[in-house]
Every structure is written in structure tokens, then in C-alpha cells.
Amino acid sequence: MSIHDLIAKRAKAAPDHLPVALPQALRDPRLETARMQKPRVSFIVTSYNYESYIVECLRSVTRQTYDNWECIVVDDVSTDGTVAAVRAFVESPEARGRFTLIERAENGGQMEAFRDGLKIATGSFVCMLDADDVLLEDFLEAHMRAHLSVATVAFTSSNQYQINGKGEIIGGQHMDHQSKGYYRHVRKTSFQTGFWVWATSSSMVFRRSTVELVMPTDGTTFRICADYYIAHFCHLIGDSLLMPTIHGCYRRHGGNNFGSNPVLGNINSVGNLDKHPPHDLFRWTMINHVLRNYDVFYPIFMGKGLVQFLLRLVKMSELPRLAAQYPKVFPGPLWRYLWLSVKQCWARRSTPVSEKFKILPPPEGIAPVREG
Questions:
Q1: pLDDT tens across 83-128, in order?
Q2: Contacts (Cβ under 8 Å, ≥6 apart) of 290
Q3: Is residue 88 part of a domain?
Q4: Left (φ > 0), alpha (ψ -120 to 50) or beta: where does 181 sit?
Q5: 340 is in which domain, residue-wise?
Q6: Is 365 helix (H, G, I), strand (E, B) or coil?
Q7: Could you tell me if residue 316 is inside a domain?
Q8: How many domains does the chain have?
């Protein structure tokens, strides 16, 4: 338990005492007087053969009511007319000079396309936007309001409508998204098989600093489901926030890289799990990334904290080998880390769901949208 958790546990307010409401940073006139700027958000659109949908996606970016953004489109060697369509849009008055097109020399998959966009992005926040999805006009405004006025987290995820290839609305929500009508601070979790409580990557806005921290540096890449790695790793480091409101549309057209199954009803069969990279590949990529970049992660967590973080990823049976191989990370006797692993496992099991999915008050003027 951290000092912050200890203070929160012991400093419970009386039931009749309401907390002081924090000002909304995006509407605080004092910040404007002090000449502080709204943070820039970089949309990174990764695309491969999405000629039919990508211009509609880019147009949805231009309609954002939050105006401090840029958009970088990375084409992963499409063989259809995607590049010509994007280039025509980028050069049109509609784009207002705010779009950049990157054409990769060879096909590398989702993670490498995203990495290329991240290299030239200038925003403090980034959105990994799929080229076949559509944002609603208040997407950025809602996300930045949540980041700056609800909770400080690694990323936010809003709910989504689901649409088909023709643009028809076929679902009033994304069934993975577990907000249940509230803003929920997702915390104190480990990297569990099958744990996915957010909507798709197009529903998320990340802190760029966290994304850069987790990007693999050893050559490991993920051609599909790179968002699975990025979202989970960022969440383990800095938590996440579920937003109950809907601000975008996820397109199910049958040709998605992973989520290609149709909406069938009360079954959440998003995609063929045989195509999904194995859970342990993601897990060991995260573990190896932390161990190989010890000097980067140590100042963030410090010694015991770094071990506790790794124990959210490492199985107890794997500890003896890792402790022997990385004495700098595990300088104490092995029994200490085995005992710490047991304690941490018990703490996770005994933590109530209400703490793992902690309900937070919505921003001022936003009422909860409780589900039935």
C-alpha cells in the first residue's frame, strides 16, 4: 500500500461533508490570464488498404470542437487507392494544413506504423486512431476534460457506437467498455489473461510520455493488436479512466485486422482469438522491456516499487530464474520476493471491485449516464 492509499484509507470524510470541487482546467479563466495553453493532441492514423473509409475518418478529425490538435497519417504500403485519397485530402482546403502523410517504404504492421507517427508527433497527448473509425465532434473536448478535471491517468477510454461498412448504427455501445454509466478509475490490477475493460484504441487518448516509456526497444513488434500491448502496459504504469459517454463510432465491416466478427447480439465475440498474439508474448515483452531499461524505470518506481510493479507481470514460478539473472533488480534473498509475491497476490484478491473500478464524480455539468 502506497502512502497515497494509506492517507485515503485513514482520512475518510464525514458522510455530510462534500469534497471541494476542483476547477475545470479547460474553463479556468486564470490559466488564460497566465497565458497557459491547452495541451496539443496528436492523432496518429495507421492505415493499410482502407481507401473506402479513411477520408471519412479524417473528416471527423477536422470537426473537433477542441482545436489544439494535429493529425499524422501513416500508410503501411497500401495496395489500393488509399495513398491517393489521403494525399488529395491533405492538400485540400478542408485539411487546413494540419495533416501530415507518411508513406512507409515496407509493410511493418500496426506497431511500426504507429511508431513512425509517434516520432514526428508534437502533442503531449496522442490518439491511436484506426483509419476505418469515425470520431464525433466532441471526442477530444470530452477526453481532455476528463484528463485535466477527473483523474490523472495514463489514458482515457470513452464508449463507442458500433457501425457497419455502410455507416449504419448497429450497436448503441461497445460491449467491452465496463463504465456502466459512471466515470471509473481502473486501478490495482495485474496483467490478466482476458482482461480488457476498455473500448477500442480509437476510443483512447494517451499521455505521450507513458506511451514513449512502454514502446519496445529490442526489436519486438506486433503487426496486429499493438493497442493491446500499449493499453495494458500504460494502464499498469499509470492507471486508466473509463468515461461512460459516447464520443466515437467503431466500424465493424468484416475486414478489420482483429475485430472482424459481426455484432450477433448478447455475445461479445469481437474477433478470431487464434489471430491474436499469445498473452505470454505480450507479458514477456513488458517484463523484458522493464529489465533491459532498468535505469529508466528505477527512478520512476525506486527499488521495492519496481519489484512490486514486476510482480504484477511475473509468475511466482519465474522468480528464481529472474532473481538469479538480474541481481541488480532483485538484490535481496529470494524468499523475500516470493513472500512479497504472495502478499501482493492476496492484496489483489482481497481488494473489492469498488476499489479496482473506483467511481469518480463526473466533470461539472456532466450527469452520470447510468445503465439499466
A1: 999 999 999 999 999 999 999 999 999 999 999 999 999 999 999 9
A2: 297, 306, 309, 310, 313
A3: no
A4: left
A5: 297-351
A6: coil
A7: yes
A8: 1
Tell me which residue has cell 514460478.
317
Report d(CA 51, CA 45) in Å as an integer: 13
Residues 217 and 293 sit within 8 Å (Cβ to Cβ): yes
HSE, CB side, 13 Å, CA atoms: give it for residue 267: 5
Global pTM?
0.92
Q: How far apart are CA 128 and CA 139, in angstroms?
A: 13
Residues in contact with 233: Cβ distance below 8 Å, sequence separation at least 6, in sequence order: 214, 286, 289
CB atoms within 10 A of CB 63: 12
What distance in Å separates the CA atoms of residue 326 and residue 235, rounded to the nearest whole number?
A: 25
Q: Is residue 366 pLDDT above 70, yes or no?
A: no
- Is residue 234 in some structural domain? no
From the centroid of its chain, how far is CA 130? 13
> How sure is the predictor about 145, in pLDDT bands with cuts at 50, 70 and 90?
very high
Q: Are strands 240-251 and 183-186 parallel, antiparallel or unpaired?
A: antiparallel
Q: Which one-letter DSSP state was computed for residue 20? A: P
Query: pLDDT per residue over 229-260, tens digit each?
Result: 999 999 999 999 999 999 999 999 877 666 66
Cα-to-chain-centroid distance, residue 370: 23
Question: Is residue 252 assigned to a domain?
Answer: no
CB atoms within 10 A of CB 278: 10
Under DSSP, the state recorded for 371 is -
- Grid cell locating 104: 512507409
